[in-house]
Fold this protein.
Amino acid sequence: MKILVVGSGGREHAIIKKIKENKNVECIYALPGNAGMEDDAICVDIKASDLDGIVRFAEESKVDYAVVAPDDPLVAGCVDRLSSKGIPCFGPDAKAAIIEGSKVFSKELMKKYGIPTAAYEVFSDASNALEYVENCSIPVVVKADGLALGKGVIIAMTREEAKAAIVTIMEEKKFGASGNEIVIEEFLEGPEVSVLSFTDGKVIKPMISSMDHKRALDGDRGLNTGGMGTIAPNPYYTEAVAAECMEKIFLPTVKAMNAEGRSFKGCLYFGLMITKDGPKVIEYNCRFGDPEAQVVLPLLKSDLLTVMKATTDGTLAETPVEFYDESACCVIMASEGYPASYKKGFELNIPADVAGNVFVAGAERKDGLLVTNGGRVLGATAVADDLPLAVEEAYELVSRISFENAFYRKDIGARALKAMEE
Ligand code: AMP
Ligand code: GLY
């Protein structure tokens, strides 16, 4: 079988490595992939945003199955385009991907179907939004409606910050049309849990839970990033919490999407906060999280391609989705300065015996050498019997990888380890 994977980051590398475990896979094309994946996939220089190029390549190369991993092509209808040419795909169509593509849509869905989330108001007019934050309770959270490279959420600790966020998003249009509408919502408190799930629109099978570390610096300080590391499973996601999530959030979301004529197939990601009033949805994503995928997929015992195809074919009920009873930790090695400005082009040294545990996000080949080419450069993932061991081994991997200007958090997993002691 020939498989095509759209995307280029660490998540895509994790997906590719897992799909490769299936003996029937003869080759995997990554569009565009990056030079750090060359041992696992054939990288083709077609951007994830180039839907015409993707469809043309898929047809010409006669791929048997396509996996669309990033949010932008999903929201833009990449799965619709490929499916219309008879190429089966993993991922939601555009109608369903709106669950991530529009925060106004997802908030209204949750309100309509009674799915627990932060209280909110929607604004399409900056002056009304500015008036609202004169009197609302503070802190408050301001969110651009559309996709904004993970930067469209501002936690405003003061009224001034809330007003500045409204001006930046709605008037200065920092995120373009994504800021035509905004959601202003209640600030929630509690530990965060990421739950990725497989769904075929009929049944939903949650994957092992995980915890992201979104801030750039140790102690959850610094700017928000795409994610600086992850652990799985998440100790805050107890069996009782899982049961409550299934009853009040997961199943109702699948049913709500069906009722709206937007049946979701693929990976539905629930960003949850475990508040004192129970779990609430912070956000939905229409895809695997990154770096969540870099701990969740290595723990998947079942064959990934088989499960993916079951979501496409509607046979997920009969398809087992099992995880190893182990723990994983992924530490992201980034370029110093990320998520703001950073230098790139430094030689990347990944010893051969650790390469199997490394998912490369940002690398290119220059004069035959592998060099850094991104903010997040790679994720080093260790799988072990328990979390303390996984954390220790992940940092051991990191100590063996080197490139100039490397930067990583030293406390990935620390919060989870503390929670396990309490
Ligand atoms: P998002 O880009 O939607 O994942 O949001 C980024 C981060 O902002 C989340 O991981 C949370 O830590 C935080 N966040 C989003 N919404 C809220 C909220 N209503 N209350 C508190 N924190 C929030
Ligand atoms: N790690 C969070 C995300 O992928 O959106």
Q: What stands out?
A: The first strand starts at residue 2 and ends at 7.
